[in-house]
Amino acid sequence: MYGMLLESVQHFIQLEYGEETWLAILESVGYRNTVFRTHHIYPDELIMKLADAAVTLVANGSTRQDFLRFFGRCFVRYFSHYGYEKFIKVCGRYFCDFLTGIDNIHLQMRYMYPKMVSPSMYISHEDADGVLLHYRTTRNGFCPYLIGQLHQIANDFYGIPLTVEELPNTPFSQEESYQFCFRLNFDNRDYMAGRAACNGSLELGRINISNRGSVKTIASEKALSSLSSSILMQLFPFTLVFRPNLEIISAGRQLKNMFPGDMLIGQPLPDVARIRRPKLLFTWDNLYSLQKVLCEMEILPASQIERKNTRHLAPERADAVAHRGAKEESRRLLLQGQLRYLSDWDAMIFLCNPLINNLEDMDGMGLTINDLSLHGHGRDMVMAGWQHNSRLEDLYERAEERSQQLQQTYELQDEWKKRGDKLLYSMIPQSVADSLRSGTDPVNTCQAFESITVLFVELANIDEITATSPMEAVSCMNSVFSCFDNIIDQHSVYKVETVGKVYMVVGGAPETNETHVRDVALVALSFRDEIEKIVNSSEMSVHIRIGFHTGSAVAGVVGRKMPRYCFFGDTINTAARMQTTSLPGKIHISHNSFCRLQKLDGFVCELRGTVLVKGKGEMNTHWLLRYELPSIEEPK
Fold first, then answer.
1. What is the DSSP string of 75-114?
2. What is the mean pLDDT of residues 473-483?
3. If DSSP codes are grouped into helix, strand and coil, which group holds residue 199?
4. pTM over 0.70
5. How many C-beta atoms surround the C-beta of residue 339 within 10 A?
6. Cα–Cα distance between 378 and 366 in angstroms, integer?
């Protein structure tokens, strides 16, 4: 489908539900920051996904069908931006006139939207209370969208209430995917009265002409003689006439030139042509019902028609036909016009002209300008299209280029936003950063935590490396801290900061959890084990001291320039003392952390004893040695 349909959805969702809702809908369907382009082709199922997303995100009790009807109404309200409401206003005085010509509107719009796959609609019954509308489409699920459009048009342009009832489906050809029949109920009395009056005047005119010289003849009218069929075929050089059994009995002058030897005469119409629009079974009843619909037929190449009769030809003649058919296979003659039943002839006449977009189409059909009738607009359209085609293409390409640039700008903006978010979230927790973005004062982000576990790890001998080779020290710290970063990504802990040679990790904040002691203990063991692997597999000689403690603390954003998420409280000081009083390659833990680990299975600790801690006095502390997976006893 063209982007114009999606532009209408975007405009009215933003208008009625807000910009944030629309952005959320776009993101949920995988089209984040997309700018829909009027002439760009998008998947048909996208509008269904938008409806499903609207059901979830708007959450006002509406269903998918409700939103599809809403989208249909949006399109009618939106297309006035392009001036298409003029099409509706000139379609007829009554709503029934519009319904009769809706297929013709689609045909005319294909010049502006050449890749449009429009549905086919026609009326099979009219009465004072409404009509029967047949709807054929290659898309499934678009009935609510159509109903929404019809409701909006009936209300906005004709000021009448409309109700729609879906009737059971009728048989259709295998080429057609979906067919529906609707009963449209509305006040159709004025239209029916006007048609009755028109039929009466036509009958009166027929009486006036047939009674030449009688007193019933109206003075202002002059009797006309009958028009010969040969003149009619010259005026409409591409005309076809066929009987109720679909046998062709006459053809226009130009068709006879293109298909010499009366090739078409006597042939069944389905063997010579196929109906392109509306797509129906090739039956007399169906064609009879299309007298108010603009129809398209495709005439098969002459060689293909001849090929049907090659079995009656000599072998040499059959080979010649096959050889010529290979050259003509690409030629397609498309005819567009109106079907009319002539009761005097007991036949149907197809008054039509070739469907030509440009000079290339004309050459492909094997036609010239002189082959087109003077009274039609075919010559003017072909020449005008040829003269202005280059300029229109240039304008279209420029518009598409600007649209693509805007799309790229949005994508680049989104990419830089992601980079900025990633940098920000590395400094401040995401929940806190989002709160600050919403306007929360930094002081109000402060939060008290009853129980967290704080870990410090120090590169014990980095000063010695710095003294001998500062660049080697920087490389060593980068390798070690990068290794630590990878480890904490695998656990529910938060990296607070690195200050010099010290790396700080917290469990249980800013997102609280009950497993923070276990998480930090596993991180500490991973730190120690990975550093041992680095030392054993490289020439790097680095030792670390680890310590952690469990207790309460307060955390929040401090400062306005270069803000940081900091932790405060005695727990932080005690954890730092556990690290400074630790030994290289050891994990020093407080008694509080030890008691909590004893409640968990798998952690093996060892009593260190009493340690004099600055500012705390003597403390009983422990070493964390390893983690052993609990054994699972097999059932007896």
1. HHHHGGGGTTHHHHHTS-SSHHHHHHHHHHHHHHHTTT-T
2. 86
3. helix
4. no
5. 22
6. 15
